[in-house]
């Protein structure tokens, strides 16, 4: 039913599309705005959702349900400047519910924020927006794999989705200080394990770690 284009490269969340206007027009029932919103957000939501499940059919169903629910209940959805966090949180909830329903997992705390295989470009590499060699990428992925699921998810939401600590806290259902702690501990671990990473990703680490 929904046929978003996911073949193009990942787009920056800083692109000029007026998300707030698109959201407003979708809520007013404009189908073109709705399709535009699907095209605009689908790929990054697919990328994020793919970190919770390797079941591509389950992921596609959750994305389909997410957008169809938005259209069906558009008149009940409030106007908000926090569109991306709203979508991320909604998809996260749907995936967790379906994963629990189809497996022996009994709580959301048991669901992992998984890493993609080493042959693929990770969201974390994409968010860093830096030219890394194949060896450096593999090493970074290995280090990221040593972090906790929450730390990896916080890093993903901070540097790939470009969300604020407040928005991340809402998605993870924790307070802002917990998000700051997750980022600090995760990025500190990277810096301690690979000091020269600062020269490659200095802007990322310097901006995120307390001086």
Tell me the CATH architecture of the largest domain. Answer: Orthogonal Bundle
CATH class of the largest domain reads: Mainly Alpha
Discrete helix count: 10
Query: What's the gyration radius in Å?
Result: 18 Å
Query: What structural category do the secondary elements indicate?
Result: mainly alpha
| Helix and strand element order | HHHHHHHHHH
Q: Into which percentage range does the β-strand content fall?
A: under 5%
Pfam families: Sigma70_r4_2 (PF08281)
Organism: Spirosoma linguale (strain ATCC 33905 / DSM 74 / LMG 10896 / Claus 1)
Domain RNA polymerase sigma factor 70 region 4 type: 139-190
Protein name: RNA polymerase, sigma-24 subunit, ECF subfamily
Short summary of the structure?
With 211 residues, this protein is mostly helical. The chain has helices at residues 19-27, 31-49, 56-72, 83-101, 123-128, 134-144, 149-160, 165-172, 176-193, 197-208. GO terms for molecular function: DNA binding; sigma factor activity.
Describe the fold and architecture.
- By secondary structure, this protein is mainly α.
- The protein has 2 domains: 19-109, Rna Polymerase Sigma Factor, Chain: A (Orthogonal Bundle); 116-208, Winged helix-like DNA-binding domain superfamily/Winged helix DNA-binding domain (Arc Repressor Mutant, subunit A), CATH 1.10.10.
- Helix content is 62%, strand content 0%.
- The chain has 10 helices and no strands.
- The relative contact order is 0.10.
């Amino acid at each position: 039913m929904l046929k978003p284009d996911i073949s193009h490269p990942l787009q920056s969340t800083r692109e000029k599309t007026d998300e707030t206007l698109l959201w407003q027009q979708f809520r007013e029932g404009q189908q073109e705005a709705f399709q535009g919103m699907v095209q605009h957000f689908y790929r990054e939501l697919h990328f994020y959702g793919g970190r919770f499940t390797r079941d591509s059919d389950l992921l596609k169903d959750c994305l389909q349900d997410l957008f169809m629910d938005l259209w069906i209940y558009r008149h009940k959805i409030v106007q908000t400047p926090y569109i991306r966090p709203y979508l991320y949180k909604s998809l996260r909830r749907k995936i967790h519910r379906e994963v629990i329903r189809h497996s022996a997992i009994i709580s959301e705390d048991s669901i992992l924020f998984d890493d993609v295989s080493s042959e693929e470009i990770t969201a974390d590499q994409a968010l860093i927006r830096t030219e890394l060699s194949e060896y450096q990428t593999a090493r970074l992925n290995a280090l990221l794999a040593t972090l906790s699921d929450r730390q990896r998810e916080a890093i993903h939401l901070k540097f790939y989705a470009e969300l604020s600590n407040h928005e991340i806290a809402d998605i993870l259902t924790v307070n802002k200080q917990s998000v700051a702690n997750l980022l600090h501990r995760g990025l500190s671990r990277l810096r301690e394990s690979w000091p020269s990473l600062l020269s490659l990703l200095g802007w990322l680490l310097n901006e995120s770690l307390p001086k």
